[in-house]
Design goal:
The structure holds 2 protein chains of 2 kinds. By secondary structure, chain A is of the alpha+beta class. In chain A, 14% of the residues lie in helices and 31% in strands. Chain A has an 8-stranded mixed beta sheet with strand order 21-14-15-18-17-20-13-22. Chain A has a 7-stranded antiparallel beta sheet with strand order 7-6-9-4-1-12-11, with no helix packed on it. Chain A has a 5-stranded antiparallel beta sheet with strand order 2-3-10-5-8, covered by helices on one side. Classes of the chains: A alpha+beta, B alpha+beta.
Chain lengths: 320, 231
């Protein structure tokens, strides 16, 4: 068992994984898990881990140290990484020795940086997940939902292999927001007036400061919904809901399971990572896609990712 | 697409989700149709179904994208017979309540909103059999109903930052017990001293959709005794 110490936690440092057993939502547990599942899976792959094991999700600049020899990997939008003050590569497996420190600094405040560790982080399991869920006060060392603090120590059940892996340029996630996010329309879509539907897809929305792991509140052209009573209903990840002020909120990993605001549809799963890596002030547009086309696109992207995950170390081996 | 049985509408809910809305003359009827379809689907043990999230009048079906698509969900719904609950499938709970308990007392506000006296409010809430329509919003939070029309009561204009664990509350024609301290916008009637659902995995009382609940009025001494004995 190795130990990883939090030297400096930054703005918020959490342990996240692929999320809870999905049936837990039936009794009110939020889905939980990494906000940017793509980057999360990639750092696990770089460490030769199963893709769903816990990793660190941090905001702002943070520093860790280890008391054992292990492989780690860092990923996220525009991140700089130092191993003992020496710059090292992002999206690259890194071999740390006992006593080494790893410092991570994203260029833009608010993006999420993921750090995978070669092995499995030892923490209490709630509904099949080790994710820390601050909102519910669940997960983490004391199972109280507290984010990681300076001086916290996490036990790691290490694995023995130290892979040398890296992502090629075209394999790195494209976080840019130039292209619209795909939206599978549904839920109450047909009840919005036609011109309100068009207005939504023709408008640009800005990410506000009011963003959390539950959802991102956007600001722009308000969208009207005809007065009707809606009963609370199940909320899928990426659902775009409109409270009374008509400003969209996109629901994310730690969303409540039920809610009664009208919804236009859901941002397609494969585009959610771009939204969750957006920061206040960024602008976003949406485009409609049928669920059949969205599924086809998902399957295609999934196959491309699997090609990375199934490739041999030699193909992705480091030069040195 | 043609609908069938008690299904009123089916809509996409993301790439990997479909939401089904049900007919019924009353909310109770709609909710029974939701539960019956959920039971029918559960009974088939389809491993590509990731989750069945019941709302009041809707059922959100989440599926494994690699093995299913919306068309398979439609086909499966057609081939699935809704199943009514058997007697022993649901539990009945009696939950003691100290009405007007300190820290959870909106009786005066409810009285203003409904025109009922405090005694009338309590008599319309205690000793009734309420049904759990759905569980969600937060872990173990059970939406129960329906309250007598006279007790219908709108939510607070602005939600409280913190409602204590065990607070018994009403909103519209629903009632609920907050299993854990949380923010909340419902009107508070009092407190239940029994530990309910705990998010850490221990669940002394786990209410599930279809269960029934009766609230019984207790006095302060009994409240204290029950609180102490459950630590």
């Amino acid at each position: 068992m190795g130990e990883i110490s939090i030297v400096e936690p930054g703005l918020q440092l959490l342990v996240v994984d692929a999320g809870r057993n999905t049936h837990a939502q039936e009794i009110g547990f939020c889905a939980s898990g990494a906000l940017d599942q793509l980057s999360f899976e990639l750092v696990n792959w770089l460490c030769d881990n199963a893709l769903d094991v816990p990793a660190l999700e941090g905001m702002g600049e943070f520093t860790l140290s280890v008391n054992f020899t292990t492989v780690v990997a860092v990923g996220g939008p525009s991140v700089s990484v130092w191993q003992n003050d020496k710059p090292v590569d992002v999206w690259h497996s890194l071999l740390l020795q006992a006593g080494d420190t790893l410092r991570v600094k994203p260029q833009r405040m608010g993006t999420k940086t993921y750090v995978g560790v070669g092995g499995v982080i030892d923490l209490p399991v709630v509904q099949g997940s080790k994710s820390i869920v601050t909102r519910e006060g669940v997960g983490g060392r004391n199972n109280d939902g507290a984010s990681l603090k300076k001086g916290d120590v996490l036990g790691i059940d290490l694995h023995e292999h130290h892979p040398q892996r890296l992502l090629k340029e075209h394999e790195k996630p494209d976080y840019t927001l130039d292209k619209p996010l795909d939206v599978v329309v549904g839920y109450q879509y047909e009840h919005f007036d036609n011109w309100q539907q068009q207005l939504f897809f023709a408008s640009e929305y800005e990410v506000t400061n009011d963003i959390s792991r539950m959802g991102y509140r956007l600001k722009g052209q308000p969208i009207a919904y005809p007065e009707t009573d809606l009963y609370s209903e199940g909320i899928n990840c990426g659902a775009i809901q409109f409270p009374g002020d008509g400003q969209p909120i996109v629901m994310l990993a730690d969303r409540q399971t039920l809610g009664g605001y009208p919804k236009m549809g859901c941002v397609a799963d494969y585009d959610l990572y771009r939204l969750t890596q957006a920061v206040p002030g960024d602008t976003i547009t949406f485009q409609s896609i049928s669920s059949d086309n969205a599924r086809a696109k998902w399957l295609l992207r999934h196959r491309l990712e699997e090609r990375i995950f199934e490739s041999e170390d030699t193909e992705h081996g480091a030069d040195d | 697409m043609q609908f069938f049985g008690r299904i009123k509408d089916i809509q996409p809910a993301g790439i990997d989700g479909v939401i089904i809305y049900f007919h019924g003359d009353t909310l109770t009827e709609k909710n029974e149709a939701v539960q019956a379809m959920a039971r029918g689907l559960k009974g088939r043990r389809l491993s590509w179904i990731k989750s069945l999230i019941a709302g009041y009048d809707s059922l959100l079906v989440l599926f494994d994208l690699q093995r299913a698509d919306t068309h398979l969900v439609y086909r499966t719904l057609r081939q699935t017979s809704p199943r009514e609950a058997t007697q022993d499938e649901h539990s009945h709970y009696e939950l003691p309540v100290l009405y007007g308990a300190t820290g959870a007392d909106d009786l005066a506000v409810i009285s203003d909103k409904t025109g009922l006296s405090k005694a009338d409010i309590i008599s319309l809430h205690a000793n009734q059999t309420f049904k759990v329509f759905t569980v969600g919003f937060s872990p173990g939070f059970a939406y129960m109903g329906e309250l007598d029309e006279a007790l219908r009561c709108p939510r607070l204009a602005s939600p409280r930052k913190k409602v204590p664990a065990g607070a018994v509350a009403i909103a519209d024609r629903q009632t609920a017990v907050y299993p854990n301290a949380s923010p909340g916008g419902w009107n508070l009637l009092g407190r239940c001293p029994l530990p309910l659902f705990k998010a850490d995995g221990s669940h002394p009382v786990t209410l599930r959709a279809g269960d029934t609940v009766t609230f019984t009025e207790i006095d302060e001494a009994t409240f204290k005794e029950l609180s102490d004995s459950h630590g």
